[in-house]
Structures are given as structure tokens and as C-alpha cells.
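Review form for a predicted model. The reviewer records the input and the model, then writes brief findings.
Reviewer: anonymous (R2)
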Amino acid sequence: MLQLSTLRYPNTLSTTGTTAKSVSTTATPSTSTTTTSTTSLTNSQAQSILKQAPFAPTDINLFRQGTYPNAVAYQPAAAPAKPLTTTQLKDFAGTKMYQLYKAMNPSISSATAALQAQSAANLISDPKLTKAIPDARLRTAAAMLKGTAANGAIAALQSGHFKVQFGALDPATMAQSQPMSDGTQSITVNSRYQNEDPRELASLLAHETSHQDGTNSLPEEQAAYSLESMVYGQYVLADSSLPLQQTELTQRRNQLLMARMNDRDATTGNLRILTANGTNLYPNGATTLPNFASAVTVENPAGVQATSAGNAYLRSYVKNLTGKDLGASVNYDSNTLNTIDSSQTLFSLQQLIQIDKNLKLNVPTS
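Model under review:
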């Protein structure tokens, strides 16, 4: 997120609280896999389930204490005993991206998925990405955007326009993007999250890469949050163990994804961002969120633009999410938000239900 005092996403900001459980070792990358089940629901059955009101969590510890006061407040992931080698990071990326490609497209052959996963892992050694992202952990995160809804971020990060690094930020800030005096853009990811799962870091990069100049707008932030949540949703669909990691950033990612998954309409059951079926995307929570887009608010209208210029990355994301090409003139504006709101095709209805189940939401049986 471009750090503007006028833009905030509530309920993902507070980092106060004590740790009641130790950090799970699953926060450290490994080559182990987790297989998610494939629902046999028909489209009609899945639609009937998703047309219902937002689903409440069955395990509040997956989410933030600000919304669920009795939840455990986890700390950031601890550093591994030894820094992970490039080979280990490539093995992790290859394994997890194979899972993702198979989960997103069950008909893809294992051989094809393996080749695509290796291609993603190889990006960790890509010279252009290495120049833009010296830290191998962040470079792994960028590589794992290949083939996701944020696939367009790869080219943007290879372009020479960005410099990406870990840095000291306010605990409330996960990451920020800032224009530099030479016309380039600096992305800083909070160093408190340097040991988190690369997929969670990838969702942050998916957001920050959308900010490519010094001008921000409310629609730009709303679209960027929508994008990062969908990317994280792809990882959660593929690996049900990911949202169970007992770390601060995991809770923040889960919170955002729950809001995105619970914003559905009562007619088709499909995802929305502007209109929800129900009054609160955080059922039984201490805070109320009526729809996904409303979570990003303007505190000082003079500090943010009403619209902002789009870019090739925005164009590719909207097409990946909706199947619609808004053209080279796409901007961060109401037209783009309305398209994102009404035309989600990235996930099938059955996949949406699987994501909800992997988030431990209370999904009705019918």
C-alpha cells in the first residue's frame, strides 16, 4: 500500500496482544505438501450454498484479535535455524506452485504442471528479478506470482521500474510503495515479516506492484486489496495448511481473504466487492464490514485522488479475474471497480467453497 495517511484498511492494522501459542514450524518453507479435497457439488448445489449470508469462522484464532477479541494474537514468524538456501527456496516454490496449478486447473496434466512449476521456481535466479529484488526470500515471493491472478507483476518487476526490499516500517504497515526522485518506485516490505511464508509475501507484492507512480486514489487501493486477496485465495485453495500457520501475517492475510470470500451476492453466489448479501462480512465479530470495498476509507479527501492512471498490470489483473479486457486506457476508477465487482471468473463456485472450507469458515452443507 502506498503510505497515505488518508487511506486505511481497518481490522488488519493492530499488532497488539500477547502470544498464547508458539509459532508453528509450518511457517518455515518446506517441501511437504497438503492436498485439498475436490468438491463434487454441482453448480446448482454450490450456488445454493454461496447465495447464503456470510459464513462465520469456526476457529477465530485464524483471524485478528481486533475483530475477534478472544482470538490468540500471534507474533511474526521466527527465523529458521539456518538461512534458507536458494536451492531450498526453489524446491519450495516448485512444490507449492505445482499444487497451485493443479488446484486451479484440475484437468492439467501432472507433467505440464511440473514444467510450469519449475519455470516459476527458476525465476528466483532470473537476472532482472535479482537486480530488482536482491533478497532471495522476496524474490521467491515474486517468482510465485507466476501463473496467478497477479502474473502481470512479473514483467513489471523485471522492467527496472521497481526496487524491492525489506525495511523498518510501523508495525501497522505490512508494506508500502513510494515514488523515488529518479522516477522509479520503491517497495518496502516490513522486516518484521521477513521470515513469513513466501506466498504471504507474494500477496503483498501483488498489491504494491499496482502502485507505479506518485498518484494514488481510493479506487486504486480498493482494486489492489481485491487483487492481493484473490492471489492469497489461490494459494489457500491449493494448500489447506497455509491459513493454519500461527503467525501474525497469516492472521492478517486470513482476515482479508475472509472479507473477500464473504462478499457474495444473493442471486448468483458469486464474489462481489461493492455489494454483499448481509450486513457484516465478519459474522459474530466485534467490528462490522458491510462490503469489501468499504474497508478502504478516505479520512482526508484532500489527500487522495478520486481516480488514478492505470497500467498494463491492472489491465492483466482485471482480465485474469474477469475474462474482460478493459484495454490499454484502463484506469483505477468506477468502471474498473464495477467490472471487478460483477464479473469474477477466476474461481469456480466449487473452488470458492473449498477456499471457505480451508479458511475454516462454517460452510453450510446445502
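Findings: The chain has twelve helices and seven strands.
Further findings: The CA atoms of residues 156 and 313 lie 7 Å apart.
Recommendation: see findings above.
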